[in-house]
């Protein structure tokens, strides 16, 4: 599965906002610096996340960005869906096609979506704070 830079940067921005959830808005230059994301590109990503209902943005000197929902309510799937969409049409499976190989591609897509839906931003924050490394999220 290919992860676009837009999705990578967007999930990193959401992660930074989750780390600071409840502490007020964070300016994009801080997010960019902490997550090593190009600030100019980050503005586009944050706008998309705002339009998608995952981020609240406030303009002005005391403004910035914050999560629109608690970190436990935003999954990696949600972010990917808002930023790039999850295209399930890329595999050759059709509804009337029961070719064994095509059934495998269909199952891979379903399991990937289930996995991404099982990981919330809160899970990532907990993982980062406990230093537990890779976590096996159940699907």
Account of the 3D structure:
- There is one protein chain.
- The protein is mostly helical and 139 residues long.
- The protein has six helices and two strands, in the order H-H-H-E-E-H-H-H.
- The protein has a two-stranded antiparallel sheet.
- Strand 1 and strand 2 form a beta hairpin.
- It starts with a helix and ends in a 9-residue tail after the last helix.
How are the SSEs ordered, and which strands pair?
Blueprint: H1 5-19, H2 28-35, H3 39-51, E1 55-58, E2 64-67, H4 76-83, H5 100-117, H6 121-130
Quick take:
With 139 residues, the protein is mainly alpha-helical. The chain has helices spanning 5-19, 28-35, 39-51, 76-83, 100-117, 121-130, and strands spanning 55-58, 64-67.
Key phrases:
single chain; 139 residues; mainly alpha; Arc Repressor Mutant, subunit A; 52% helix; globular
- Percent of residues in β-strands: 5-15%
- Kindly report the name of the CATH homologous superfamily of the domain at 5-85 and 120-130: Winged helix-like DNA-binding domain superfamily/Winged helix DNA-binding domain
Output the radius of gyration.
Answer: 17 Å
What is the name of the CATH class of the domain at 5-85 and 120-130? Answer: Mainly Alpha
Q: What CATH architecture label of the domain at 5-85 and 120-130 applies?
A: Orthogonal Bundle
**Main sheet, how many strands, which sense, barrel?**
2 strands, antiparallel
Give start-end ranges of low-pLDDT stretches.
Answer: none
**Global morphology:** globular
CATH topology category name of the domain at 5-85 and 120-130 = Arc Repressor Mutant, subunit A
SS field, number of helical segments: 6
Q: What is the tally of beta strands? A: 2
Q: Strand arrangement, largest sheet? A: 1-2
Task: Note the run of SSEs as H and E.
Answer: HHHEEHHH
End-to-end C-alpha gap: 18 Å
